[in-house]
Amino acid sequence: MSKIAIIGSGFSGISAAAYLSTAGHDVHVFEKNSVAGGRARQFNTDSGYLFDMGPSWYWMPGVFEKFFNDFGFSTSDFYELKLLNPSFDVVFGKNDTMSVPENFEQLCDLFESIEAGSAARLVSFMNEAEYKYKTGIENLVYKPGLSITEYANIDLIKGAIRLQVFSSFSEHVRKYFSHPKLIALMGFPVLFLGAMPQDTPALYSLMNYAGLKLGTWYPIGGFGKVIDGMISVAEKNGAVFHLDATAEKIGIEENQARYLMVNGEKFLCDAVIASADYHHVESKLLPSAYRNYRENYWEKKTFAPSCLIFYLGINKKIKSLNHHTLFFDEDLDQHSKDIYKKPQWPAKPLFYVCCPSKSDDHVAPKGHENIFLLMPIAPGLKDTEEIREKYFQIMISRLENHTKEKILAHIDFKRSYCVKDFISDYNSYKGNAYGLANTLMQTAVLKPKLRNKKVRNIFYTGQLTVPGPGVPPSIISGKIAAEQLLKHLNKSNLEVTI
Ligand SMILES: Cc1cc2nc3c(=O)[nH]c(=O)nc-3n(C[C@H](O)[C@H](O)[C@H](O)COP(=O)(O)OP(=O)(O)OC[C@H]3O[C@@H](n4cnc5c(N)ncnc54)[C@H](O)[C@@H]3O)c2cc1C
Question: What's the CA-to-centroid distance between 469 and ligand 1, angstroms?
Answer without folding.
Answer: 9
